[in-house]
Each structure stands twice: as structure tokens, then as C-alpha cells.
Amino acid sequence: MDRKLVGVDLGGTTIKFAILTDSGDVQQKWSVETNILDEGSHIVPDIIESINHHLSLYNMDKSQFIGIGMGTPGTVDRDAGTVVGAYNLNWKTTQHVRDEVEAGTGIKFTMDNDANVAGLGERWKGAGENGQDVSFVTLGTGIGGGLIAGGELLHGTAGAAGEIGHVTVEPNGYLCTCGKRGCLEQYASATGVVHVARDMAEEFSGDSELKRQTDDGQDITSKLVFDLAKGGDALAIRVVDKVSYYLGLALGNLANTLNPESIVIGGGVSAAGDFLLNQVNHYFQEFTFTTVRNSTSLKLARLGNDAGVIGAASLALSFE
Ligand SMILES: [Zn+2]
Predict the structure, then answer these.
(1) C-alpha pair distances (Å), 202 with each of 102, 134, 213, 313
(2) How many CA atoms within 13 Å lie on the side-chain side of 272?
(3) How many domains does the chain have?
(4) Which CATH number covers residue 40?
(5) In angstroms, what is the span from residue 199 Cα to ligand 1's centroid?
(6) From the CA of 93, how far away is ligand 1's center (Å)?
(7) Residue 181 belongs to domain spanning
(8) Which PANTHER family match (predicted)?
(9) Strand positions, DSSP E, 131-261
């Protein structure tokens, strides 16, 4: 009998679900809004209800499932099956997610941090091509990462391994939400790109649409910066070059440390595609030493929004 997996990608606005085969093919997908009211107390019951409802809708039985895997914001205690400090879910106190989901569905449950899980997804069915050593970085409103070394996800002693967003790329640079200065996240996330653009616009004196819009006080987005750079805007080109330098520096040093087969770049900012990839790669070559330069490659993510549910489901393979 072919056995199946459930993947859950818990986010601040939606909860995405998928039913997959044990080889990672998505068979069903759905999502529900995340109800963060009442300190997020509806979230776990909603997850249980939604899984049970869809299993009966598809005439499936819990015995057909190897397990449920979930990616979540916040700090995960994998042994205890709990999450704490997921502020975008209003989860301030410890949530006993595993025990509740297992009791409510009758299916075994496991979870990990959302960026780790997206990394597992890209590694398994995406750009990582199921390699043993794959690093993943997501460039969104923040920057997260997932590191797979020797086939295993790295967690670190306090669960903070893979926090690529807080690698220092500019000593004494922009202040970060983590309290430190000069973190990659402040330069190469969607908001970081805009911050760099605004600062460079102040000092730029040439002809530039980006400068005009910035000086006008218009809302600048990272997408606008990349689009203008692609169109030849002199300031936007400089901004993208600077952002690419920081990314090349951080990812180069990551490669010098872990020497993965590939570093997969995902998240909203990576929508800039090969244009971004090529420029980051230029600096990546500069900041890596020969063995690493010849064996680690930068790639764009392939799974988009599905990386989370696919990677989450792969966690449950440990129950096989
Ligand atoms: Zn930081």
C-alpha cells in the first residue's frame, strides 16, 4: 500500500496544507486563513479540523498516512513538540502543538522551523536535486536559511543554525531587529534593498528615475529597484551591485564553511531571477577559494510557495 504524508506550512496570514506521496508528489493542496485572535488559540484546532475534514472529503483514512510534518515560525523544541515566541501568530507562551495534533488526528506529527522546512523542500524536490549537502537562503521581508549537511538538517545547540540573515556583512552598519549591527537582512531582504536604495539616492547626483521617485517621497519596493536596474537606471544598477556584493560575501563565506553542492536562493527578492543571480555569482566567485568555487554553485529556488509544504511533509518520512 502506498503511504502518504501531510505537509503543513503555518504562516502569519495563511496555513497551507498538502497531501503527498512518500516520494514527494503533491496530490492535494488547500489553504485556510490563519486566525491569530485570542492569542493564537484557534490555530491548532483549525489545523486539526482542516486535516480531518479533507481526509474525509477525499475518502482517506488516518492509517494511510506515515505522518504529518509542519513548518512554523517561532522557536521549535523538537523533543517536546512545542513552539514558543511565534509573535506573528500571537503565540507568546509555549504551545504544545505535537500532542494536540496527534490527539486530534490520530496521525504522528513532527515539526521544524519554517525556513529549515523550506530548505528541506528545495533540497528534496527543487533546485537542490536531493543532494546530501544543500544550503537554502530565503530573501523575503526578512532573510532565513536552512542548512542540510551530510543529508541532515543542521539545528545548532540552541536551534539557531542557518540564521544567515544575521551574518555580519557590514561591521557597525545598519541596526538590525536582533540588536546587532550590519546583518545581511538589513541589506538584502526586501526592506533592506529599499533602505540601501534610499541611502544611496541621497548621495547620488546623476540622472535616475529611482532617485526621482525616492526624492519625491514615493513608496519604493525592492521589485522597483530591480526592474529599474534591468532597464539601465544608473542608481538602481549601483544599488543592485551593492546588494549583490553583500549577498556574495555572506554566501561565499557560507560556502567556504560548509562547501555544499548548491546554495539555493528563494523568497520574494529572488523573483529578480538570473539578473540577481549573475551579479551575486560575480562576488561569490571573488569571495570563495578555489576548491569551493569549483564545487559549490548558486541556484534559484524552483518550488516557490510549495517549498514549505513539501519540505514539511518530508519531516514525516522519519516515521517510516
Ligand atoms: Zn540581525
Answers:
(1) 55, 39, 12, 47
(2) 32
(3) 2
(4) 3.30.420.40
(5) 19
(6) 23
(7) 131-302
(8) BIFUNCTIONAL UDP-N-ACETYLGLUCOSAMINE 2-EPIMERASE_N-ACETYLMANNOSAMINE KINASE (PTHR18964:SF149), ROK (REPRESSOR, ORF, KINASE) FAMILY (PTHR18964)
(9) 134-139, 143-149, 152-153
